[in-house]
Amino acid sequence: MSQRISVTGHTSVDYLLTVETMAGPNASAPALDCQEYFGGGAANVAAAIACLGGDVELISPVGKDFAQKEYDKELQEFGVDLSKLYFIPDRSLSKAFIITDAHSNQTTYFYWGAAAKLAEMEPPRVSFVHMVTADCFFNAKMSQAADFVSFDPGQDLITYQKEPLNTILENTDILFANRHEIELVMKIAEKTFEELKNMIDLIVVTRDKEGSTLYENEIADGKCVKTIETDIKAVLVESVDPTGAGDAYKAGFLTAFVKGYSPKICCQIGSVVSSFVVEKVGCQTNLPDWNRMSERYAVHFDIFDLND
Amino acid sequence: MSQRISVTGHTSVDYLLTVETMAGPNASAPALDCQEYFGGGAANVAAAIACLGGDVELISPVGKDFAQKEYDKELQEFGVDLSKLYFIPDRSLSKAFIITDAHSNQTTYFYWGAAAKLAEMEPPRVSFVHMVTADCFFNAKMSQAADFVSFDPGQDLITYQKEPLNTILENTDILFANRHEIELVMKIAEKTFEELKNMIDLIVVTRDKEGSTLYENEIADGKCVKTIETDIKAVLVESVDPTGAGDAYKAGFLTAFVKGYSPKICCQIGSVVSSFVVEKVGCQTNLPDWNRMSERYAVHFDIFDLND
């Protein structure tokens, strides 16, 4: 069994509403479609790692409707260890309401629910953690309680404060961010990109269909001698729903990383896993196992035998 | 046992989101609170009639999540007969997403779900029906299949067409509408209020906190000799959430009506039942039984012994 990955962050339910036109204040509009999907960044990443055959546990707050909706069963069927979940009996799961109109405009309302209790939680000591957005104070404590830290600041970054963010960054070994997030990390932490590269040995900046860039420090005698920059192409497929693509990328990267693949191959595997998720609506509806991923990998990248 | 009341219309789930500020297109906002409540006009009315001790059945389309959410159990516990529900296996329950900001502005998205199949349904023959908004074509057929018709055009009135609306009105014995709805009924049906009064022997126009007005035809030799207009005061209480107040009013009115009370007393009982529902969030969370209703009735109206 490879290294266990502990994933922290949100476990939530996504409500995807399709409307012709958004309704303004004191108005109503019919919803043409309304679908409920299991989501939340941490749960998405954990489910995808488990599908790829990784050893994964989810450290996340859940509410009273977690079992009622049989979300627990689904994650257990994927193979995610749920023994370290925080159960908050007087709260519901966090929920995202995503309203999309005919011109692809999106409005999102996010309810923290049980996840609002994260800041009060004392994180367990773990070996390898991947922190998916969520509360900055919890993540600061978590980053100090783990031997190896992977961090995806994600959509909650707008709520982050300088001090806990810098605590997290000082402990981070791999940083994932999209173009907007990396700018916001620099702004809140008051760090230049050079300073970030000096602090963190692996930085992956994702750019949707334009692929991703890996910044990898070359270490000699315990010191960074230079940073190698590598562009990784996206694996383009017919996309139905981009939601969850980023989570799938990180799941692919990390599963490969703990298997010992080079960061470049990890990024490529991330792109491949991500390409599956966008083919279907929902973040956990089209997750590949290692074999399906390997087959598609061979089509898009130099033929390479990805051993299980 | 008194006359059975068959209630048709929506059975749905209400998601009440509280936000500081509404989010525009391509923006997101946190939801401060998010509550899920059982609702839908028909289910609200049926639940309230059952609580008051009335004999009631619900004729409404429900989806696969009806039992999953244990909504069936709740209605059965109230005492609602569910044997005539339409079960639509490939649809979910209809859902209302109601977003309220700090200035009490409200935006609503309504997903018809299983209720979109209503137009295709063939209504059963019934003795006494109360039709709560929903599809105009189904309601037109239903109004012809019932001996006695009570009609609440409600929020779906904006989707109504002239011909089915006139079929409904020709068969209607009691019409309930608020000030805006009565105007819209007249506009779509192309009828004056005088014409409506000539067609329908009992019309109740509700005005929120300003009470309601009863228009009751006096019949002699099978003909309307005059219309008596009576104002009924609202029973004012500390209101937490006005949602469901209208449904509760009709439930109170109809339960009393089939017991043989005069239309004026029926309106007063409607006001009393309505006052309970606004005291708590949710449409089915604070329904009174006949005794609790009678006690409050005695406080607000001329002392009158409301026999069970």
Automatic annotation (TrEMBL), chains A, B:
Keyword field contains Transferase: yes
Per the record, a Pfam family? PfkB
Q: Which Gene3D superfamilies match?
A: 3.40.1190.20
- SUPFAM superfamilies documented for this protein: Ribokinase-like
Q: Name one GO molecular function term.
A: adenosine kinase activity
Every Carbohydrate kinase PfkB domain range: 3-289
The top EC class, named as a word, is transferase
Q: Name the family.
A: Belongs to the carbohydrate kinase PfkB family.
Q: What is this protein called?
A: Adenosine kinase
Q: Which species does this protein come from? A: Methanimicrococcus hongohii
Q: Which gene encodes it?
A: adoK
